Amino acid sequence: MLKSAIEVIKIGAKKKDIIKVRINSHLKAETEKLLSSMGLTYSDAITLFSKAIVNEGKIPFKLQSDPFYSTENQESLRKSINQLEDGTGKQHDLLDNDK
After folding, report:
1. pTM score > 0.85 for this model?
2. Residue 77, domain member (yes or no)
3. Which residues of the chain carry a pLDDT beneath 70?
4. DSSP per-residue codes, 17-57
């Protein structure tokens, strides 16, 4: 009977791959802390994320760009930096400068 149980375990076992990811140390620590409070590991979270992608056929949340990195904003920032560097920029008080 023991032999049969071992065979079932071997048959039911699935091969697992290792995924290597680079992530900011602070973000990793904060994520691990939150996952731990939910009783999950990073591996559990990645597995859930992967299953959601497969089940939904897409990333399971809305992705949108940060307007800070838009071409228009980056050009505006470059222009402002150039003005400050060549002395033609104007200094303004902050709107909430009362602090």
Report:
1. no
2. yes
3. 1-13, 97-99
4. --------HHHHHHHHHHHHHTT--HHHHHHHHHHHHHHHT
